Recover the amino acids of this structure.
């Protein structure tokens, strides 16, 4: 039974990671072939650096992802704190249900519905173009917010509520109490939520496709447009870079989670 389970697990990992491994290897291939590795070369990385259209799409994607991450992290942290402070359970349950909707709703439904809203508002104000950078930014903030909220909220629930009360009893104003007491306790959740928001925004295609205008193109949309003709090996090079960036963020996220678990464990041991 143990041998069969190991074989099954190995097959699953091979199935999941073999395509990525092939992409990584052939991004360093001298030729365009995906079946014959001729020789090691950085040719496609050099061509990628000379492709202005793709680099412009990368810049747009990073600006969008960073903007959506910052705004959704601030708003999500404030929303999580607001939900945490609510005393009535039915109100908390209602807000949690509403917060879940963007996460469980299919991306294509979210994209189309937001596009219709933006077009309607644009027509109402007689704008020449209804879709632009701001519409895609609002869309990204919308689907990133729930992930930040559900990362921060458990940290607030784990926190000892008496710390806030003690700080306020000692004369610390509520605003200062948040930054001096609450923020250090929930910071791991905020960082994790921000990392998730960044990776989700970086990766999104469906919602971006429906809510972006002609003057703003993200990297996933750029790659989709290239598939109508041909995908050159420089896209393998770009995908390799994105893979390692995402992997680094994942490792950072795991390190933060492990450190937070150790901190909570040590704190519980001291209290016991």
């Amino acid at each position: 039974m143990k041998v069969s389970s190991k074989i099954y697990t190995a097959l699953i990992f091979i199935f999941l990671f073999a395509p990525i491994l092939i992409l990584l290897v052939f991004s360093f291939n001298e030729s365009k072939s995906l079946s014959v590795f001729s020789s090691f070369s950085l040719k496609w990385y050099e061509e990628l650096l000379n492709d202005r259209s793709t680099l412009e799409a990368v810049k747009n994607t990073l600006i969008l992802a960073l903007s959506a991450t910052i705004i959704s992290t601030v708003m999500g942290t404030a929303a999580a704190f607001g939900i945490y402070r609510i005393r009535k359970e039915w109100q908390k349950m209602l807000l949690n249900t509403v917060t879940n909707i963007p996460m469980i709703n299919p991306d294509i439904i979210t994209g189309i519905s937001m596009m219709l809203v933006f077009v309607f508002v644009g027509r109402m104000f007689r704008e020449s173009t209804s879709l632009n950078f701001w519409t895609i930014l609002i869309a990204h903030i919308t689907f990133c917010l729930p992930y930040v909220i559900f990362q921060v909220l458990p940290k607030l629930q784990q926190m000892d509520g008496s710390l806030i009360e003690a700080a306020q009893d000692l004369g610390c104003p509520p605003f200062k109490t948040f930054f001096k007491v609450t923020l250090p306790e929930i910071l791991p959740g905020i960082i994790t939520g921000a990392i998730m928001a960044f990776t989700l925004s970086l990766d999104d295609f469906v919602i971006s496709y429906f809510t972006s205008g002609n003057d703003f193109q993200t990297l996933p949309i750029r790659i989709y447009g290239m598939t109508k003709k041909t995908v050159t090996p420089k896209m393998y090079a770009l995908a390799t870079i994105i893979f390692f960036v995402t992997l680094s963020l994942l490792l950072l996220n795991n390190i933060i989670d492990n450190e937070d678990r150790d901190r909570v464990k040590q704190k519980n041991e001291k209290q016991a």
In short: The longest helix spans residues 234-271. The two ends are 40 Å apart (CA to CA).
